[in-house]
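The material for today's practical consists of a large collection of protein records. There is nothing in a record beyond a sequence line and a structure line. Backbone structure tokens are a discrete shorthand for how the chain folds in space. Nothing more is needed to start thinking about how sequence determines fold. As an example, a complete record with its sequence and its structure tokens follows.
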Amino acid sequence: MEHEDFMRRALALAREAADAGEVPVGCVIVREDEIVGEGRNRREECGLAAAHAEMDAIAAANRRLGDWRLENCSLYVTLEPCPMCAGAILNTRIARVFYGARDGVFGACGGVTNLFMENFPNPPALVGGILGEECRGLLASFFQALRDRDHSK
């Protein structure tokens, strides 16, 4: 499979999040061309600040692989990870991070700061912009619909 194929699966998860009223972010974790963990935003659904797509996917991959270490795994996420998720990526030793849209508000991979450039052990390789236009478009549509709904009240 190609990088775009994995990001398309993350986009499908992001659309599920949007349909559930969540900010549309989806994530998959891949090892040896196989998806071993999936997640989507669930903060509203769970009432938990840490219920981000990456955290959901990391937990699923940990369960599936039976290990807290996710070495030799790649993470694909539709929105640049925030500092919390970047910390989890560092702690699980994920080898590569691919993201779609840059986040100029909370992005920790260059949008605001880049935690992966700091002196932490095992920093992942980082590639941004995978299906970036589609990822940005999904987020923009979601937030525009929220603004339209709020103005119609």
About this structure: Residues 132-151 form the longest helix (20 residues).
